[in-house]
Amino acid sequence: MLALAACAPGSLAPAPSPTRAARPSASASASATPEPSADPAPDRPVLFASLAASDGLAIVDPDRPEPLLDVVEVGRAPWGVAAHEGTAYVATADGLAIVDLAARERTALVPYLHQPAPQAGAEGFGEYRDGGLGIAVSPDGEQVAVAVHRWPDPAWLEVYDVDEGAFTGSADVGIRPFDVLADPEGDWFATVDHDSYSVSVVGRATLAVERHEIAPFGDLGFAGWEKPHYGAVTADGRIALPFQGLVTVLLDPATGATDRVEMTANSHSHGVAAAPDGTLVTAGTGAFGTARGMPNASFLDPASGDERVVPLEHPHETVAIWQPEPDVPWTAVLGGGFTRDGWWDGLTLVDPATGAVREVPLAGRPQHVIAAVLPAE
């Protein structure tokens, strides 16, 4: 049997420090996440962050003196988060969590079609654990697609029908799909298949799969570092995939055609997000494989190739765009829950214009971060 490796070569093993994080309390130390604060203004965006070393989904307003608004219990080792019109969907190790955002409570934990066996202790947490990984919701809100990993079996993209309240179909995809993307036009979902160097494009109507190998440095197998991790859909409908802070591949999901944009960040690439102006923001985690640089955030214009690189103190896992009002400049938000050593309990905000960096403590290893509206209770 093959030994499964992620970013690091080696055998299957849990990520470091996969212990359940305690909920914030009045007795929490000054270095821990602060107590939940007052509600934001109605219909104002907030950040939602999966706390991968716990069972929680954090609700955060990074502009408040006490940013943490609440923590909702969703299920063990949450990974991906998606939201649509007052409902959040969280891919956990044990099922798909459905969260009523107005009530701030989980209303269901739906088992996967390919439900993994229960995992206890360290094996139940971290990037190697079985269960849900990437997640996306269709633009119309009718379907939620979850990537389900169950080693050594193949991975599946499972489709949850919101009206039926159940998973209704699945498709075989690549190995350990860290991320799931949804076509803005509503025709497909796509998985970013970390250990098979591929993107699997799955038709919503048929669940037919087109697999595209994306390996700008070659397929180096399980022991390689030059793998895809996360993707972002660009304004022209392509899928952007950064590698090693050295190149971003732009994939046309309809044809499989690719273009390359050279990068200078020179830092092992994890999360990526597309900003309103088309800038691609990538989290660089440091020197791994062919990447030789330090942790940083890359701000890349894929049209011109212009890039600004901002050094960071910590590696990060995913990226979101924070723009609480439409007429204010956007800011990049990076989740500190890097899947390997070096993660930190917090979010980092980076101003693309000035390079200014601001950190927001958040206990529980915040991994996947998104911005969405929090309805009034």
From TrEMBL:
Source domain of life: Bacteria
Region feature Disordered, mapped onto this chain: 1-44
Biased composition (Low complexity): 18-40
Alphabetically ordered keywords of this record: Lipoprotein
InterPro entries documented for this protein: Host-pathogen_enzymatic-act, WD40/YVTN_repeat-like_dom_sf
Alphabetical list of PANTHER family matching this protein: DIHYDRO-HEME D1 DEHYDROGENASE (PTHR47197:SF3), PROTEIN NIRF (PTHR47197)
Protein name per its UniProtKB record: Lipoprotein
Organism from which the protein derives: Agrococcus terreus
Organism lineage: Bacteria, Bacillati, Actinomycetota, Actinomycetes, Micrococcales
